[in-house]
What we know:
Largest sheet: 12 strands, antiparallel
Radius of gyration: 31 Å
Shape: globular
Mean pLDDT: 96
Number of helices: 14
Number of strands: 51
Strand content: 35-45%
Helix content: 10-25%
Amino acid sequence: MKKIALLVLLSTLFFSYTEAQVHTTFEMRYITSDSKADGETDFTGESEWMSLDQRIDFLNKYAAFASGFYGNLGLDKPLIGDGDIRQTVRRIKPQPLTNVRQTLRLTDWRAYGYRAGKAEDVQNAFAGWTVVNGATVKDGSLILEDCAVERNLDPIRWRFRLHLDVKKVGSGCTIVFHKGGKPLLSTRLADKVFSLSSGMNKGNGHYDSSVPLHLEIYGDFTNNRFFVTVNGKSVACLIGEADIREIDKMVIRSEGTTEIDDISLFNFVEDRTNKHTPYSSVLLINEDFNDVLPMQGWQSLDYDDSVWKQVTLPSSHGGLREKEESYYLRKKIHLADFERAVLKLETIDPGGEVWINGQPVAVINNRHPYDLDVTEYLQRNQENLIAVRVKPYKAAHRMLHSPSDPYIGWFLGRATLILTNRCMIKDVFAYTGSLDGAARQVNRILLQYSGVYAFEGSVEVNYYPWFPVEGEKVATMKQNIEIRPSVDNEIVLEMPVDNPVLWSPESPNLYRVEVILRDKEGREIDDYMLTTGIRTISQKDGNLYVNNRPEILKGAQILGSRYPVETMSKNYKCVSDETIAKDLMMIKEMNGNLLRLHVHAEKDTTDGINDPRYAEYADQLGVYLLWQTAAWIREGEAWNVDFEGYPKFMRQVCNHPSIVMWEASNHPNRFKLHDISDSHDFVTRVYRTLSAVDTSRLISPTSFWQHMHYSNYDGSLDKEGNPIVPNPVLMEKLMTRGSQDAYTGYGAKWTALRKAPNKWAASCLAANDKAYFNFEHEESAAQPNWTLAEKEPWFKVQSYEWEYEKGSIGRLLDASEWRISQAFQAFAAWESMKKQILIGYDGFSWCSLESGSNMFTYQKPLIDPFGIPKLAYYANQSVFQPIWAGSSNVDVVYGPADHISPVLFNLGQPKTVDLTIELKNDKGKRIDRKIFKKIQVAGGRTVVNLDGFRFKTVPDGYYFLVYTVKEQNPPYRYKE
C-alpha cells in the first residue's frame, strides 16, 4: 500500500495532466441579416463578406475577448516560472548505474579556449587599456586608480549593448559614450546609486554594493533612448542630443580604485536589404583580462590546468566572443585494476582529438558517437588524464533562420568510462514487439570478445519497474551462448512481461532492464543497464495507434536560437538541462504531447542534434519526440543525409519510448531536377538504412513529400499525374505520410482553408490506410508584445513574414496593432487545426515553439523569447484538449439561413457529457444558450455531429460562441 500511495503522489507531482471534467473553447463569428452571407464565408478570399475595416474590428474584438478568456489580459504573463523549471530538473532521475562493470560518468572537466595568435592579440589589447597612468591589468581584472581609459570605436549608429562585470567600485565610476569629443550617454556608479544622463535628461536607481555588479548599457538611436541595468534593475533615459545619432568612443573614468572583470560591447548593425537577417551582431570590445596560458603539453598529466574553468558535460564553446578557438578539456581520474576499458563519447561536435596520458587515441572528423577501446592507454592503480580538443566551427551555408553570428557552438557531449571484462556487452536495444495481454519484449544484445577462442557462458535479462517508483523483478529470461572472438555477436531474446504497465504521455512508466553476462562457471563478468518503456506505435485504417489505442501527435518544433542574442550561437546546439525541461514543460502546458527536434544552422549540408538528454527527460515527463539525429539535412540534395552516421545516432537513443518517429530530412527540394529514380532511390535508401536498426518506430524520409516525384498516396502517379510503377517501399508498414500544410500561412486566403484538404493530403486521407501528419504548420505569423522587448535589438523590427498580413487580413499591421496580429494567428490556428482534426489529420508540429530565429524577428512561434505565450499558444491548448466542441465548418459570417452545426471531438475513453453553447456579445454578456444533455461519446477517436440550430435573432454584429463540455462523473447509466 505504501508503494501505491507513493506512486500516486509522485504521479500527481510530476504529471498533473489528467483529463479535466470541464473543457471550454470559443469561436468568434459575425452574425448578419444579410442573405449574401449565407453559406460558408471566407475571412478573406472568394466568399469573403466583411470589409477590411470590419476584419480589423473583428480581430481587435477577438484579441480583447481571447486574452480575457485565457486569463492573460495584458499578454505579458510568463508561462512557466524559473523555480518550476529548476524543480523539474531536480526531479529527473539519472539513468541507473551498473552493478558488475564499473560505469564512471566523467561529468566535471577543466576547460579552456585557445587559438594560435591569441597571446599576442591579448597583450596588444592589454597595452591599449593600460596606456594611461593608474590603469593596470592584474589577476584577471582591469584596475583603474583615479584615471580614465578611452577606447575608440567603429561607429555605432543604430543599437548597441555593453556588458560590464565590476568587482569593486571606488568612490565612483563613470562610463561615457562620445561622438568625437562630445559626450552623449553617461552612466555613473557611486554610493550604491547608478545614475544615467544624456543632455538634460536624467534617471537613477540603486544597487547592492556588497555583491559584484553586472552592468548593461543598451542604446537605441532609432527610438532615442538608452537603458542601464544593474544586477537586473533597469532605468531608462531619453537621449538628449537630437542631432547626434552616432557614437565612436567610450571613456571609463574611476575615482578611487575600480576593478573590472569582464567587458564586451556588441554593435547591432541594421541591414534593411536583408529580409531574413535584418540586423547583425558585431563585437567591438571583448576582454576578460585574463592572461593567455601556454598550451604546450596540454595533453600531459603534469600540465597545470588549475586556472582552467570547471565545466560539466555537455559543454560548448563558440560565438563571436570565442570565435576560432579550439576548446580544450581535461579530466583526471584515478583507476584501480581493470581488464578492459571503453571510453564512450556522445559526440565531439564537429570533431576533434582524444588523448590519454599524452598519447593520441583518436582523431575524429564527424559528429558521430564513439566507443573507444582505451585499454592500452590507461594506467592501472594510478592517476590518468583524458584530454580532448574540440575543433572550432563556422557555419558555411547558413540557412535563412540562422543567427548572423556564424560561429555555431562546438562542444563535447557527455562522456563515460566503462571498466569491464574482455568479454563484454557492447550494446542492448530493448523494445516492445507486440501487446496482447502480456508484452512481448524483444531484447537485441550485442556482445564482443577480444580474446582468441570462442567464449562460452550465458546471458540473463531482467525487467524491474523503475519510474516513477522502483519495484521488484517482474520478468526474467536466461540463455546459454557462445561468443565468437573479434567480431560483434548479436543475441536476440524475446520474453513476455505479464501485466505490463505501459508508457504513454499520460502515464510515462519506465522499466529498468538489466542484462547480465556470465562465464560458463556462472560468474558474473559484465552487465548492462538501461531504461525503457513498454510501448507500441502503429498505423492502420488511416489512424495512428499507440499501445493499440488511437492517438494524435500534438505539439511544436524547436529551432536552436535561444535568448539572449549575444550567446545564441554558442548555445545553439548544446543547451542547459533547464532549457530542455522548459521546452518539454511548455509542450505539456499546451495540452500537447509532441516535441519535434528541428535544431539546425546549415542550409543544405548535414546538421542537427542527437542529444540523449531530450529523450531521457521526455521519457519521464511524458512527451513524444519526432527525432532528427545529427545526420539530418534541411534542404538541397537529399543525398547529403549522413547515411553512415544515421544508424549510429539511432542506436545511441533507441531505447527511449518517447521517440516515436525517425525523420531523415526536412524538405530537400531538388528531387524534381532529376528523374524519378532520384525519389525512388532516396526513399529506398532511407527505409533500408533505418529499418535495419529499428522496426519499432515510424519512418519519415522527408517532411515535405510534395517535393518528390509522387503526386498521390501510393506513388502510382508521377508529379504530372501520369501512371508509374510505384516503389513498393512506400507501402512498408513503418513508412508514414505527411507534409507541411499551411492552409492559413504565408498570407493565404481563407479560401484555401475552406477548400482543404489539398490534393496530396486528400489522396493520403482518402486511402484510409497510413497516418497523415502535418509536420510543420501553420506558418502564420504574429507580432509579439513589443513593450516586453524595448531593451532588445529586434524591438519593432518587422519580420520578413510581415507581408503575410496583406493576404490573410488585407493590409499590413503596424507595431501598435500587435494584438490584432496575434488575434489573426490564434483565430486561424483554431479554425484550421479544428478542421484538420475533423478530416483525419493525425499529428501537428507548429513552426515553432519559441521565438529566436532570424535574430529574434521570426514571428511564427507560439511563445516569445521571454517565455510569454501569444494568443495562438492558447488556441493550440484548446484544440489539444482530449475532448472539445466547436462548429463543424470554418464559416466566419453567419447569414440569416445559416445554422450552427455543433461537433464534439473525443480522443480517449468513452464519455457521457453535457454540452452548453453560449452566445455572447463583444462585451462578454450572454445573449442566448443551447444545452445538449447526456451525449454518449464513444471511446477511441470519435467525432459526434449534433443537430444544427439557430440562436434567437440578434442585431448585426460580432459574437462569441462559448462551448462548455462537462463530463458526467460518474457517467450516466442507461437501462437496457
